[in-house]
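Incident review: delayed structure delivery

Summary: a single-chain prediction request sat in the queue longer than the usual turnaround. Root cause was a stuck worker, restarted by the on-call engineer. No data loss occurred. The affected request and its eventual output are reproduced below so the record is complete for anyone auditing the incident later.

Affected input:
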Amino acid sequence: MGWHCITVWECELTPSKREETLESIAFTLNHIWLQDHQAKVVAYPQMDEEDMQMPMAAENEI
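Output delivered after worker restart:
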């Protein structure tokens, strides 16, 4: 279902460790968000050699 769980122990919230714990939680949440919202990579179809002649955007006719 896409849920993520983070366990924070009470001992990690003591004044001496609180800042480090909060930074760690922020880092973890950012990492999870980036993984969940990353761009999907789609492969382009392979072209045959005869298809390699790309049309010109503009051609001069004389």
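Verification: The radius of gyration is 26 Å.
Action items: add queue-age alerting; document worker restart procedure.
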